[in-house]
Every structure is written in C-alpha cells, then in structure tokens.
C-alpha cells in the first residue's frame, strides 16, 4: 500500500506500507478520493504545526474491501461505498458520551491510527482500517463528490447552531467553499441569504447556489448595504467563514437585536478582538463558535449529497491522481480554488 507523508514544510513523500490483517472488529476500506482541506494546506505551508512525519487527509470517500469477523454483515458489505469521519474524537469524554463529538475534550488530529505507519488523519493513504461507527454509506454520486461530505457535515452543524428560521436574513461573509455551503444550506432552510466577498466570480456562483443578494465588499460598504437591505434592522444571522480576526467587528456591527453571529473558521493569526459588552447586553445578540461535526451531521450530509439536495460539483476545482499529490497541494495553497481532490 502507499501513503502520502508530510516530511516537513512543503515536503511530501509517497511511502510504501504493508496491509495489516483485518482485526475482528474493523473494516478495511480502499480510499477512492480525498479532498484537501484548508487544515492540511496549513500543515503543508507550516502555518499549522504538527510533529513530522505526518499523514494528512480527512475528507474521505472509500469502498469497503474487507470485513472483520465480528462486523455486522446485515449492515456492511464488500463493495459498499462509504465516507469516513468522526474518528478524531476520543469517544469517551463527557462531550463524546452526550453525542457532541465535535467538541471532544481530546480531539486529536495526530492520532496513531491502527494500520498506518505514522501519526495523522490518514486519508491520503490507499487503505485504512476503520471502526464501523465512523463509516457512513453514500450512493449515486462520484467519490470526488462524496469526499465533500465532511465539510458539508461541519456546515450542517454550523447552520443548526444558528437555528435559522424561515424569513431570516442571513449574511455569509466569505465565499470560499465553506461560505458557499453555508449559502446553500441557509437558502434551503428558508432564509434570505446575502453573500459577501471580494471576488465577483465567487459572488456569481453564490447566486447559483441560493444567495438572494450579493455584496462586493471591495467596492461596497458592508454595513450600509446590509442596513439598506434590512430596513435598518440588521441580519438575523451572520456567518463569518473567514480566518481574519478584523472581520469579526464587521460581523458584529451588522447583526440585528436578538440575532446571532457565528464564527465558523479557525483564526490565523489568532488576534484578539474587542467587543462592546454594553451593546451585547442591550441588543441581546449572541456570539457563537462552531467547529467540526458529529455522527448525526455526517448521516445527514451523506444523505443530502447522495439524494442531490446539495450539489457539490461546482466546488470541485481540480482532481489529481494520487501520484501527483504534491502538485495537488501546490495548486490548493494558491488560494484560488474551492476544493482540490486527490483520487486513487
């Protein structure tokens, strides 16, 4: 078997490793596609620090090729198409035991996964051993599309955190793939969606996936435009999907009384922001964070993609063969793509 290993900053090497005998309680999956998340891009460029060597990849679509003796064959079969997720949570802490794996106290991107030669999430490998509780069936779409189940699951969790109501004005700041998935889900939840970005091509795509209005914040004032669109009320929900701390002030400025500001992205650098506690008190808005996803989110994500409710094809910018994995990363980190996918 082969795996792509981060050996250092901007250094990836393909290594060989042996296929391990399948334990009785595990399933052997053959990876068919792995999308390159911003998280792995930050590892590649050195923004996110990990201990090398490291195996990246957590947006995974695969096929079942082997079953352990104790696996329930009424549910799992050779040839089943699956996505793999939720395996980075510990499974034992308070949050995991209450169904909130996304906030696991011991969430670990650098686990030593069984069957792999190095630590890491493992998806940039030809084969992986999986506990069945971390596998979710999909059908009717390509592996490249199914690999985007993981980012969609995170956005499902984000949108449910915001508790979007019919007729809400929802502002999405940033129209990368995560912002556009927020646009799509919010629109399907009955919201009036306002998409904001600096690039006209991304704003144009936002309209095709559900945005009712767009604001080019390079040319237009975000606060003025939102207030004009909402008759000076502000947005019921604001999603900030960017990693830029300064934009938190903009998000808070446009939220309505009793509204919600959701900080979706990790922030690099993690620069503190200042807020008016008196305005928070008087206007009763909420400032919320969201990260990762849980099993419930994954189940609904694979269903939404499989049944065509959410079309992720517009977000697949490029597809590279596994042997070209380093070229795939060099392309992904340019910042002009939605998702670059590695296929096996």
UniProtKB/TrEMBL annotation:
One Pfam family assigned to this protein is ADH_zinc_N
Q: Which residues form the Alcohol dehydrogenase-like N-terminal domain?
A: 24-137
Looking at the record, the residues that make up the Alcohol dehydrogenase-like C-terminal domain are 179-306
Q: Does the keyword Oxidoreductase apply?
A: yes
Could you tell me one molecular function GO term of this UniProt entry?
Answer: oxidoreductase activity
Q: Which keywords are on file for this protein?
A: Oxidoreductase
Record's signal peptide = none
Protein name per the record: Alcohol dehydrogenase
| PANTHER family, alphabetized | L-THREONINE 3-DEHYDROGENASE (PTHR43401)
The question of whether Methyltransferase is a record keyword is answered with: no
């Amino acid at each position: 078997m082969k795996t792509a290993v981060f050996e250092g900053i901007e250094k990836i090497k393909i290594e060989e490793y042996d296929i391990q005998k399948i334990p009785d309680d595990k399933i052997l999956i053959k990876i068919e596609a792995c999308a390159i998340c911003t998280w792995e891009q930050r590892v590649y460029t050195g923004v996110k620090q990990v201990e090398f060597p490291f195996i990246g990849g957590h947006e995974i679509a695969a096929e079942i090729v082997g079953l352990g003796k104790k696996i329930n064959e009424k549910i799992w079969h050779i040839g089943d198409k699956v996505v793999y997720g939720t395996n980075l949570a510990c499974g034992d802490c308070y949050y995991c035991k209450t169904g909130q794996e996304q906030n696991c106290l011991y969430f670990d991107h650098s686990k030593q996964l069984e069957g792999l030669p190095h630590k890491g999430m493992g998806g940039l490998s030809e084969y992986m051993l999986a506990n069945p509780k971390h596998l979710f069936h999909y059908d009717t779409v390509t592996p490249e599309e199914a690999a985007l189940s993981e980012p969609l699951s995170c956005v499902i969790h984000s949108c449910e955190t915001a508790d979007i109501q019919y007729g809400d004005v929802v502002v999405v700041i940033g129209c990368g793939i995560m912002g556009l998935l927020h646009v799509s889900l919010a629109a399907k939840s009955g919201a009036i969606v306002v998409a904001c970005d600096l690039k006209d091509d991304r704003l144009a795509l936002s309209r095709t996936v559900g945005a009712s209005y767009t604001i080019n914040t390079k040319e237009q004032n975000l606060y003025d435009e939102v207030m004009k669109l909402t008759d000076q009320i502000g947005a019921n929900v604001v999603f900030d999907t960017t990693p830029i701390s300064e934009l938190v002030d903009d998000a808070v400025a446009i939220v309505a009384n009793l509204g919600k500001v959701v900080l979706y992205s990790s922030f690099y650098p993690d620069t503190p922001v200042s807020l008016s506690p008196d305005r928070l008190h008087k206007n009763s808005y909420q400032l919320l964070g969201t990260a990762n996803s849980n099993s419930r989110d994954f189940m609904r994500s694979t269903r939404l993609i499989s049944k065509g409710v959410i079309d992720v094809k517009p977000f697949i910018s490029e597809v590279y063969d596994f042997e070209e994995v380093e070229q795939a990363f060099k392309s992904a980190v340019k910042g002009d793509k939605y998702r670059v996918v590695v296929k096996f």
